[in-house]
Each structure stands twice: as structure tokens, then as C-alpha cells.
Design brief:
Helix content: 25-40%
Radius of gyration: 22 Å
Number of helices: 13
Number of strands: 16
Structural class: alpha/beta
Length: about 450
Amino acid sequence: MTPHAAPDPQAGAAVKAADRAHVFHSWSAQGLIDPLAVAGAGGSYFWDYDGNRYLDFTSGLVFTNIGYQHPRVVAAIQEQAGKLATFAPAFAVDVRSEAARLIAERTPGDLDKIFFTNGGAEAVENAVRMARLHTGRTKVLSAYRSYHGATSTAINLTGDPRRWPSDTASAGVVRFWAPFLYRSPFHATTEAEECARALQHLEDTIAFEGPATIAAIVLETIPGTAGIMTPPPGYLPGVREICDRYGIVFVLDEVMAGFGRTGAWFAADHFGVVPDLMTFAKGVNSGYVPLGGVAISAEIAATFDKRPYPGGLTYSGHPLACAAAVATLRVMEEEKVVEHAAHIGETVLGPGLRELAERHPSVGEVRGTGVFWALDLVKNKETREPLVPYNAAGEANAPMAAFAAAAKKHGLWPFVNMNRTHAVPACNVSEAEAREGLAALDAALSVADEHTV
């Protein structure tokens, strides 16, 4: 592995010491972590102070959609800092207006008004608030196997174990099972069965909760951290029809799946469905400066024409973040990044991952599209028993820890969650880089294979 700077272990040790003395890390037992000290990054790679370079198959936290340090985006941030580094959100600012215009041009349907936030969780918070105020109802339905953010309402909406320590059961959230044929909660054997049974289950949930009490249904268009489970054909249009029938606001969470990740501007484009509200963040500016938002339909926007919207953020539409978004969207358009993501998925990642599944007994299923893929790792392909138990930790998680260590040893930084590894590189990852990642996964999966039966 060739570093992009001369190794400097002493500097790395100083960075690590300061981190351990003062930085409180998210989702971590502070005394049990050993964060890597990063010296730099560029494109699809980052490197440490010891001279090790890693191909990033996580895109940060699935947000560096155009890779690290794209020169045009860096230059746009620098230029904006020299022109107008910050300004309050109540004013019309050119770069804020342009970012909103460019986003609205790409969102489906009439989602033409943009409310800016600092990230995805705040976007979900405000989308739910808008839905509740628009309908005058309180309950919100969300799916198990989902993640919507770590703020108060967003974490209550979340359907994975990160919710448990903060779940006060006071946010008016009701959960249901979304479709997932590989581990079907409906005992389905085909996509058509899974779709029909999942929609009936949702209908039943609504009936027993009371349609007139439900403000919104919130779904990740394609669930991300929970496993990249692409919904079967007809499911999202079916949810749209149910929402229309009962006057329920349909919210799609595109925080992770949006802006090229799935080989389309938004994952909703694959299904021909238009939500009432759509949340976004991450890829909107490749994470260079924190930015998120809600794209709002004309009907919901009209609710607040004469009635003040009771929400706001000091840094809503921050000029530096919006400058990064404008530059990112222009780069994606001019460099055909969305089309490239689709091409890489169809010709390299998809075929390559499926070929790995044929050779490795630890790979139960390959799922995904574009540069948004998951490998479901199992102990046994026939029984589909996960390689590690649900929410495993410590010794119970040893097989996945060994897999991750092997990937890093071969120069790949993997995205690992529960019994899965995700292949989520930058949307502009090159064919050679994607194949390099597949080779490293091949080697690491041999370690996972040792734990199969």
C-alpha cells in the first residue's frame, strides 16, 4: 500500500493521544475503542500516519459520493469563505437559492420547496413535524430494519437496536414489517407474494391503529444501514396508494440512498413514486460541509403560506454548505457521476459480488444497485442462519470482527453491520478501484468462510 505522504508515526501518536484525551465518540464505549489516526484522503482512498493506504468501501458513512477532496468542491468552499462565510437563514442569499434550485430540479414530482437542515436526522425531525402539523394527527408509522437518525424523534422512528437505549415510547411511533424476501416475516416465497403480504400487513396495522390518527408513514426508499433491502416491484406504489386513501403523508428518507448512490438521482426514481416529503443529506454535497434538508410538495408547502412553520435552525442553508452542494451537483452532472454509478453497479460490482457469493459459503445473499450493495453473511446457506446473532457484541461477534480485520489487512476499509458487509464506495469509483475492492473482499471472505458449517 503506497501512502500519499511520508509516514510520520510520531505525529499519528500525538493525534491519537489528543483524541483519546478529549474526543467523545458516537455509538462507542469510550474506553474500548482505538480510532485510526487519519493523515489524509483523496478520491476513493485515505491513509494513516504509518504509511498504510485504504480503499474506502464505506464512503465515510456513505456520504462521500464524489470521493474525498474533489478539487472543484474544495475550491467552491474556499471561494465562498472569501465572499460570504456565513449568514442568517432568514435572508435570501445567492448560493442558498441556487442550491435549493438545483436540488428541486432533481427531486421527483412537485417537491420544489427545500427546507435546509444540518443533516439527515434533523431533516427527519422536521419532515415528521410538517406531517403532523399538516394533518393535525400525531402517530407516525415506520419500519423495523430501518435507521432514521439519532435525534429525539428520528431515533424513535428507527427500527434497529440503536433505538433501544433512547426509546421512551412517547413519540407516537408505531412500527411495522417492510418487505424483505430473503428473511421474509410473511413466509413468502416470491417477490409478488412478499409485496402483497407486506401491503396487507401495513393495511392491517393502519386499521388497528386507526387511520384518522396517523399523520405519516416514513420509509427509507431502500433501507441503508439495515441491509440494503430493495423493495419488490409494486410495494412503494402500493404504499403511495394507501397513503392517498387515508390522507396519510408519505415520507421517503433518501438521506443515504439519494444523489446517485443507487445509480439514479434518487432511489424513488427507480420505482416511479413521488412522496409528499423527502429527506436528504450526505451525498447532496458529499459530506464536505454538514447539510441536509426536506423537499416539500406543493400541498404541504401551502399549509404554511399563511401559518408560520414553527421550526428553524441557526445554520439552515449555511453558505459554505450550500456552496459545496452547488459545486457537487454541478460536478455530478458534468462528470456524469450518476450514470457512472449505475454502470459500475451493472458491470463490475453486481457481477463481481455475485461471483464471490458463488465461491464463498459465507455469502448467503447479494443485494443492491448502483454503488449500494450488501452481502448477507451466513453460517449456512441452506438455513440462512446469520454468521453472528442479531446485535452481537464481544465474542459473539468474533467472526465479523475477523472478517473486518482481514479486509483492512488487504487494504480495504469495510462497512460492517451485524452479519453484513456493505460495498458502498464513492459513486465515481473507477472500475480498477472497484475490482481492487472485490479482490480484497474475496480474501477477507475466506476468513468468514472458516466460521460456516
